[in-house]
């Protein structure tokens, strides 16, 4: 699954480039440098190759998996192409010389001209260097189409003296086009404290947490931000040593709205240890999937959060486990 994607090509860049942030470590491991990818952004398809990949982790949290991509025309320049000496001893059309340098057709939208014999010579140049020099000799630019083909075009499709008389292609106005927009809201806080517990529970089952139900298919429909008068559904998670009393509120009404069991997927990191900790108490572990090193079957300890493997080591395991949560309903949030 792709969490985010960004692809762009600026004036003067010969290729599209961008980054993809992935959520699946197993998919990240299978990707190799120079692998071909097709990225769909809206209705546009971009043919790309993997330029680099990076894994960043802060402490024992989930790693950030980033893949850098670039147009396949990157193979015409360093480090994928080896610089070499090249010369043409016979007269050659500019487009033909450029296509001969890269070994494939170019979307040529620039004036074509005859280069006299012996006038075109390069030293220690990549194929892209050759095409760039030929294009710039006539005021052209090189870039790459989304389909991955090299394109050579005029810097200005219409000569500057003809701008006043030439019909425009697009007219952009603030009235019909959203050229720029910024909006800011300041929320006045009328309640600055929510007391969930007045002591720290101890013992193996000493756990208590409260959170807004942010599930997409939950009663809040994925919302986690609310305003005065909104109704809010909360999830309370407790360990065996914690007893919930009736809620005491200073305003509005809060009542118990039932109990629900949910399946959670979580990645646990073992760091030269046999144990790792779940984020919340679990009723039981449903399945486990090791990425790389397998430390053996997992056991859920009596505190309902500690997970023990048979062997110690450095490893990541994806576990699916069952969570029981108490549902509370707040009818008047301030």
Describe the structure.
It is a single chain. α2 runs antiparallel to α3 (127-137). The two termini are 37 Å apart. The chain is built from three helices and 18 strands. The model has no long low-confidence stretch (mean pLDDT 85). The relative contact order is 0.10. It has 334 residues and is mostly beta strands. The strands form five sheets. Strands 13, 14, 15, 16, 17 and 18 form a six-stranded antiparallel β-sheet that branches. Strands 1-2-5-4-3 form a five-stranded antiparallel β-sheet. The chain has a three-stranded mixed β-sheet with strand order 8-12-11, with helices on one face. The protein has helices at residues 25-30, 94-102, 127-137; strands at 2-8, 17-22, 36-41, 44-56, 64-70, 84-88, 92-93, 107-109, 114-115, 120-125, 140-144, 150-154, 208-212, 232-238, 254-277, 284-291, 298-300, 306-330. It has three domains: 2-70, no CATH class; 84-159, Phage tail protein beta-alpha-beta fold; 195-334, no CATH class. β11 (140-144) and β12 form a beta hairpin.
């Amino acid at each position: 699954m792709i969490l985010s994607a960004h692809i762009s090509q600026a004036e003067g860049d010969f290729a599209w480039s961008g980054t993809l942030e992935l959520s699946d470590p197993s998919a990240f491991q299978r990707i190799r440098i120079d692998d071909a990818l097709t990225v769909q952004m809206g209705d546009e398809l971009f043919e790309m190759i993997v330029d680099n990949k990076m894994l960043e982790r802060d402490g024992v949290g989930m790693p950030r998996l980033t893949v850098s991509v670039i147009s396949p025309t990157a193979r015409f320049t360093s480090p994928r192409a080896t610089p070499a000496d090249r010369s043409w001893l016979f007269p050659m059309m500019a487009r033909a010389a450029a296509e001969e340098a890269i070994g494939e057709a170019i979307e040529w939208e620039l004036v074509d001209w005859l280069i006299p014999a012996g006038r075109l010579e390069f030293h220690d140049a990549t194929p892209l260097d050759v095409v760039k020099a030929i294009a710039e000799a006539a005021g052209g630019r090189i870039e790459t189409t989304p389909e991955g083909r090299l394109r050579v075009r005029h810097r200005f499709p219409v000569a500057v003296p003809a701008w006043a008389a030439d019909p425009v292609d697009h007219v952009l106005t603030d009235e019909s086009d959203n050229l720029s927009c910024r909006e800011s809201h300041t929320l006045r806080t009328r309640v600055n404290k929510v007391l969930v517990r007045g002591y720290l529970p101890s013992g193996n089952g000493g756990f208590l947490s409260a959170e807004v139900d942010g599930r997409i298919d939950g009663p809040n429909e994925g919302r986690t931000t609310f305003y005065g008068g909104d109704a809010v559904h909360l999830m309370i998670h407790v360990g065996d040593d914690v007893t919930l009393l009736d809620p005491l509120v200073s305003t509005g009404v809060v009542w118990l709205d039932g109990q629900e069991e949910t399946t959670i997927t979580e990645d646990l990191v073992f760091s030269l240890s046999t144990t790792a900790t779940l984020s919340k108490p679990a009723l039981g572990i449903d399945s486990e999937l090791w990425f790389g090193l397998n430390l053996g079957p997992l056991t859920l300890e009596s505190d309902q959060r500690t997970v023990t493997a048979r062997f110690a080591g450095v490893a990541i395991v994806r576990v699916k486990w069952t969570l029981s949560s108490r549902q509370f309903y707040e009818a008047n949030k301030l």
